[in-house]
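S1.2 Input.
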Amino acid sequence: MATRPVEIGPAGLHTARAIERLRLVRGLTQHQLAARCTALGRPMTNTALSRTERARRRCDIDDLVTIAGALGIPATTLLLPFPSVPSGDREGC
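S1.3 Output.
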C-alpha cells in the first residue's frame, strides 16, 4: 500500500520563503549557504537547499537550526512573520 507524503503546511511554506529571503538579504548563493551548513556539521547540498526554499522538501528541525546558524540568526526568526515595511520602503523590491 503506497503512502502519500505529508504536505507542507502554512508554517513550512512561510519558513521556506523566509530562508530564501534571508539568504538573499545576506548576499549568499544557495551553494554558499549549503557549504556553511555543511561546515556547521549538517551536510547539505545546494539541491537540498533549493528544494527546501521551493517547499519541495520538508525542513526538519535539525536543518532549521543549522540554516539559521549559517545565516547568523536565531532559528525562531525563520518561523516568525516578516516585519511590516512601510509602503514607501518597498520601492525597488
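S1.4 Remarks. DSSP finds four helices and no strands in the chain.
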